[in-house]
Amino acid sequence: MDKKQQRHLIGGPQTQAMLERGIPLFRNGLRYAREMERANQRGYRGPNQIVISKAEGDFIWDLDGKRYIDFQNGWATNPVGNCHPEVLAAVEEAIRTYGFHYDHPLRYELAEKLITIMPNQALPRFSFEVSGTEAAESAVHAALCYTQRRYLITFSSSFHGQSLGTKLMSGLDGDYNRYMEAWTGGVIKAPYPYSDHHPAGMDQDQYVDF
Ligand SMILES: Cc1ncc(COP(=O)(O)O)c(C=O)c1O
Question: What is the per-residue pLDDT across 81-115, written as a single tens digit (0 to 9) for each?
Fold first, then answer.
């Protein structure tokens, strides 16, 4: 990495050392040097990343003790910030009480609570899943079985997860599904109706039909 590239990196030296340690270990490591080079050629900043030493509320710290505002608020959906004490206490109590089992009173309490906030109480039965990937697959499976249909329409630029099933439903770009052509089965990709792709002379309703 040259000096110019180094100047643009936000993490301190310990963070950089850890990131370099990951180059031979993780998938992104294979492309790291190439992405850096490409960014440099185009005049962009290279891929920037930090390794977290601590997270609390709206802040995170890198391995060098530098503090950042965490606009992402951690992975997935986390509107209450990092390490919220009520969340930590509830998780600890649940694990202490029920270990790794799932059929305990909290499952029933949560289902009953969800029914009360469900619009029109329209979907009153639950299947709790452990990730977004599983939730997306489970919803699609339920819909196929309920409608007794075999095909599925998804939007071309969407992300639903990293399992084989959700990869097929997703459509970020052509490379995402490379070597999986034979698996695409019943998934039909519809172009996403971005407003900037709106053909001239079509009104909004016609565009949606189109
Ligand atoms: C829209 C959407 N669906 C599914 C997923 C997959 O969720 P998970 O990583 O919990 O499997 C994500 C994750 O970012 C998502 O944004």
Answer: 999 999 999 999 999 999 999 999 999 999 999 99
If you measure from the C-alpha of residue 157 to the centroid of ligand 1, how many angstroms do you get, rounded to a whole number? Answer: 14
Three-state DSSP string of the chain: CCHHHHHCCCCCHHHHHHHHHHCCCCCCHHHHHHHHHHHHHHCCCCCCCCCEEEEEECEEEECCCCEEECCCCCCCCCCCCECCHHHHHHHHHHHHHHCCCCCCHHHHHHHHHHHHHCHHHCCCCCCCCCCHHHHHHHHHHHHHHHHCCCCEEEECCCCCCCCHHHHHHCCCCHHHHCCCHHHCCCEEEECCCCHHHCCCCCCHHHHHHC
Q: What is the distance in A from the centroid of ligand 1 to the CA of 121? A: 25
Q: Where are the domains of the chain?
A: 3-69, 86-121, 145-196
Pocket probe for ligand 1: among 72, 159, 170, the residue whose CB has the most ligand atoms within 8 Å is: 159
Name which residue leads in pLDDT, 46 or 63: 63
Query: 3 C-alpha to center of ligand 1: Å?
Result: 37
